[in-house]
Amino acid sequence: MFIFILTYKRFNMRTEKTLTGIFLASVALKMFNIPGSSILLILSLLIISLLYFPFAFYFFSDKSLKTQNIFLSIFGGMILAIIPIGVLFKLMFWPGADISLIGGITLTAIFLILTYFMYKKTSIDLNTYYKNYLTRILFWLVISIIFYSISKKQLLQIQHSNDPKLLELKINAYENPDNMEYQYELENYCRQQDSLYLVNEMKNN
User: How far is CA 98 from the centre of its chain?
Assistant: First the structure.
């Protein structure tokens, strides 16, 4: 029985830590435009969001499914699941990112205060559960604040610092999504760059 509980707890922690590590690594790769970084980013954040809701009651428990505040786990999982989606939308330049992050920051901050007061009044059996829970909340609150404070323009400047022309076109296109002329200019430039890349590859081979 002891071995089962230990394995159960380690599996929970390893799964969550591994996915969080993949997420952080994919962010770094995304900033350098490494191929495949977007796929890693999407998969890791979507899975993290799913782990938090609806499976928070399983991954947030301490030594067993009973060693937790089940209501807090489920409700908190719903709140924490918002942040990975908001971060994903921000890094992929999809609409609705800032709204998700603002909602995540507000709800998580309120939930942090609530959880802290519950931790202060809890029994010794739930001390570890609440400490781990507070760590999660603080981590994702900091992440959400960081990504909310970074503008699309700043992200683009990091990603395309070596290609000023592409940077300019993307800023124009993303800041003016209804302007089809900017969209066409960006698409044409990307096609030209792809064609040049293929020609250079053929020459090298």
Answer: 13
Report the candidate in 147, 165, 163 with the shortest Cα–Cα distance to residue 155.
Answer: 147
In whole angstroms, what is the distance from residue 75 CA to residue 97 CA?
22
Dig out the tokens for 39 from the structure.
């796929």
Tell me the pLDDT tens digit for each residue of 131-157.
888 999 999 999 999 999 999 889 999
Assign 3-state DSSP to the chain and report helix, strand, coil percentages, each to 5: 80, 0, 20
pLDDT tens track for 88-121: 999 998 989 999 999 999 999 999 999 999 888 8
**Which residue, among 42, 68, 38, has the nearest Cα to 136 in the 3D structure?**
68
From the list 49, 108, 55, the residue with the least C-alpha distance to 84 is 49
Q: Report the alpha-carbon distance of residue 108 to residue 111 in Å, rounded.
A: 5
Identify whether the C-beta of residue 67 lies closer than 8 Å to the C-beta of residue 59. no
109: number of Cβ within 10 Å: 14
- Asked whether the CA dihedral 186, 188, 189, 195 is positive or negative, the reply is positive
Q: Give the pTM.
A: 0.84
